[in-house]
Design brief:
By secondary structure, this protein is mainly α. It is 87% helix and 0% strand. The two termini are 22 Å apart.
Length: 83
């Protein structure tokens, strides 16, 4: 068993942990990119709107990823407590 998991719950938890570990650097990069976009906009309304959209899309994506991880933890915990 290369994954060293014995149950489906452990496999799901391992997968979600990997997704979060991969996503966090991308999240940080996109927050930095959005901040730099605000700075480089220099008062241009269309560039500021694009920077705001990038910021909010990054926030929404972060919440989706962390929410999926929290939901997965809750489901795995419920299944483990039932079994």
């Amino acid at each position: 068993n290369p994954l060293k998991v014995s149950t489906v719950q452990d496999a799901i938890k391992l997968f979600m942990d990997a997704v979060v570990k991969i996503a966090i650097p991308f999240i940080v990069v996109f927050f930095i990119w959005a901040g730099i976009s605000f700075i480089l906009a220099q008062g241009n309304a269309t560039k500021i709107t694009a920077a705001k959209n990038m910021f909010w899309y990054t926030v929404i994506g972060t919440l989706l990823i962390l929410g999926a991880c929290a939901i997965t933890d809750a489901i795995v915990g419920t299944i483990n407590s039932i079994a």
